[in-house]
Amino acid sequence: MNRVRTADRAARVVLTACATLVSLVIAAILLFVGSEGLLLFRDVSPFEFLFGLTWNPPLGRYGALPFLVGSVAATAIALLIGAPLGLAGAIFMAKVAPPWMRHILRQAANLFVGIPSVVYGYIGMTLLVPWVREHLGGQGFGVLVAGTILAIMIMPTILGVSEDALRDVDPTLEEGSLGLGATRWQTIWLVVLPAARPRILAAIILAFARAFGETTAVQMVIGNSPVLVRSLTTGTATLTSQIIMEMGQTPPGSPWNRALFMMAFGLLVVSLLMILLVRWVSNRGVAR
Amino acid sequence: MTRQKLADRIATAVLWAAGILILLILAGFLLPILLQGLPVLDWQFITTRSSAVREGGGVGAQFFNTIYITFLSLLFSLPVGVGAGVYLAEYARPGRLTDLIRLSVEALASVPSIVLGLFGMILFVNYMGWGFTILGGGLSLALLNLPVLVRVTEEAIQGVPRSYREGSLALGATHWQTTAKVVLPTALPGILTGLSLVAGRALGETAVLIYTAGVTASRWFPNPDLMVAGETLAVRIWSVTSEGLVPDADRIAMGSSALLILLVLAVNLLIALPLWRYRRRMR
Q1: Where are the domains of chain A?
Q2: What is the interface pTM, i.e. ipTM, of the complex?
Q3: Running along chain A, 288 residues long, what does each successive block of 10 average in pLDDT?
Q4: In this complex, do B83 and A271 lie within 8 Å of one another by their Cβ atoms?
Q5: Domain at B43-282, CATH class
Q6: Rg (CA), chain B
Q7: Backbone angles phi, psi at B216, to 5 degrees
Q8: Which residues are CB-contacts of B91 (< 8 A; sequence separation ≥ 6)?
Q9: Chain B residue with the nearest C-alpha to that of A10
Q10: What is the topology classification, in CATH, of domain A49-287?
Q11: Nearest-by-CA chain A residue for B112
Q12: What is the reported pTM?
């Protein structure tokens, strides 16, 4: 009996340690990446880093605004394409599709998730970029293809979470609407979608965070020119693509190296803000 | 009223179109890889070592490293992730500490993989002085797995009916005995489903590994040395297309992509099949 009691107490200690370790990991990431990045401001003014348009480390110019704009533009395109498509797919699966079609789509969503991001990037690079170059002009590389690839990568997330949200809407609401003579579409648009809105919004915010932080796929199709985006189909760069391109060639502790770490810290801060935003959106939904 | 009927028809048509479009996009991605990649896959491609400049190299070492690093990352993250999930579901009391841990899990899940890679680089490559190693790659990748494992474990345990616990506790079992012998076996299918999701993601990860495990592979394989650089299949696709010098980069990238997707599917099946039998037995 005594041994059982000891095991019980030991288990509690070990499990608490596991959970605390998760907190320690995120704290260590913030501390290490943050301190490495913030040291940049010994050599470079925060104003130049945030608003400077010239990125030329050998000449001591560390303007990171082009990368921020590139990230925002690619992510915005991804949401413009991916959110409506994912949401439409979710409505279709939850309310319209016959069971066999729903089954096929669910398997398809699983397959989408199973494709590694580097493969998305490779297909974008070998199929989409030449197609865009031929039909829309420009270099092909750029935020349009990057945004399209990202849209396809985030679509399954929006699809999955939104479908669950739509399915969980109280069926009596729907029956009431249909009973009053509304069509199926009126019911979906005026009753079901508003009821599921907080969770759909949360899914879109998480998709934004994912697209903003995606690296390999974007780097392969963005063109990697460290200049401000000029058009949808000319080369530019994003925060993530620039980090992966240049990290290998910078000596640790140099301003160049620290500038890249500062960009990584920026990514980290944005993703944490998104988590807080998701919490706020979800709580507001509950409060109503 | 007829206008409303018309709108309903149009909406239905548009929703069907969206569903079909999603399937077409999937086909547009999978078909080129399978059509061009599968013919590349033969015994020689999977078992010979890669060449930096010459044609005809294989991906033997990368194939081994992919499985090895994924295995290591699961080895490190599974105990901690499941432990933290059990803590949150079974032991945590509402309060500041629990809130903080929940927020940490969500925050860690949202950290971009490139940031995890840089963190691993600071810690393992520079601070510990290991350089690019399979061990450093596996540990960094474990950080990517960790929050997902915590979440799926917690959700799986929350799905276990209360009456199971009450029955066990009423028979005089301790909290831990109940958790280990009643709650966890019931939650196992859910945890394993999450595990296959995590493994699939780890197999195809690049951004975490490029600056922790590196872009070079051992000359011979299987090389179980933890302290050597270990390029994986996914990293190979990236390195061969973005900075490679080999003339047959497309052949290698297509072949590796097909191999990687087959590997992910195989791991999913490997976990799904016994799970299916386990579920039937539990009934």
Answers
A1: 49-287
A2: 0.93
A3: 84 93 96 95 93 92 95 97 96 94 93 93 94 89 96 95 93 90 90 93 94 95 91 92 93 93 96 93 67
A4: no
A5: mainly alpha
A6: 23
A7: -125, 150
A8: A12, A15, A16, B175
A9: B176
A10: MetI-like fold (1.10.3720)
A11: A213
A12: 0.93
